Amino acid sequence: MIKKFEAAIYNQNVRDCLSVGDRHRDLDDEWAEIHYIEIRAHTQEEARQQITRKYPASKGFVIREVEEVREFY
Predict the structure, then answer these.
(1) Greatest CA span in the chain, whole angstroms?
(2) What is the predicted pLDDT for the residue at 13?
(3) Which of 7, 9, 26, 70 is 20 to 30 A from 45, comparing alpha carbons?
(4) Average pLDDT per block of 10 residues along the chain, 73 residues long
(5) Which residues contact 42 (CB under 8 A, 6 or more apart)?
(6) Domain that holds residue 23
(7) Which domain of life is it from (predicted)?
(8) Has this prediction a pTM greater than 0.70?
């Protein structure tokens, strides 16, 4: 069954640039703050893999957490 997950991510490179009064050449300053990205996957591990492919650590992205979103009615 496909589930909905939410990943909390930010970019450490942007944070580092801002800390010395500089700006990242490719990303907006807002990436210094946590972004919440919705992912649909079968498992939490699959969701983490998807978000890692789209936002790789090699480009400074940090995945703080990936949590399943439980919907209440």
Answers:
(1) 47
(2) 98
(3) 26
(4) 96 97 96 97 97 97 96 69
(5) 1, 2, 3
(6) 3-68
(7) Bacteria
(8) yes
